[in-house]
Structures are given as structure tokens and as C-alpha cells.
Amino acid sequence: xxxxxxESVKHVxxxxxxxxxxxxxxxxxxxxxxxxxxxxxxxxxxTKLSGLNISQEDMQKYVLNINNILIELSxxxxxxxxxxxxxxLEYELIPTIEPLNV
Length: 102
Prior knowledge:
Blueprint: H1 2-24, H2 28-50, H3 56-78, H4 82-97
Helix pairs in contact: 1-2, 1-4, 3-4
């Protein structure tokens, strides 16, 4: 289970970084496609996270933090703001998940 979790972390980070790169280089169509993939990978990540031996309180805090980031991301997506989307991914989502990349 731990190895599956580690793989899910790597997939989330890789997909988020790819999306950031597409938005930064002006290829927003590919960036939006990666966002769809990213959301799917985050769902898997959360499922794997819930299977780890961590306290319910820590789990709730972590998931709430990710949820808040996703709400910000959703607002940026509605406004089709590629710069804000890439900023949220690069400066909020990735740093939140990266420490779990062991």
C-alpha cells in the first residue's frame, strides 16, 4: 500500500508540473487537458492517503488543505486564468504534496 501511495504522489507531482509548463509556455489547451488528468490523479492520491496509518485529525487537515487549493484552482479555471492556474499549481499544490514524495 505504501508503494502505491508513493507512486500516486509521483504521478500527481509530474502531472501538476507538466500542466504548469504548458500554461507557462502558452499551450493552454494541453494545460487544461493535464488539469483533467491531475484531478483524476488527486482522487487516487486521496484514496491511497486514506489507506495509510495516520491519525484521522491529520488526515482531515491535509485533505481540507488540498480541498481549499482545489477550490482556488476551480475559480481560476472558471475565469480561464492560465497564469493563476499555473501559480496555484506551482506555489500551492506542488509544495503541499511534495513533502510526501519520499
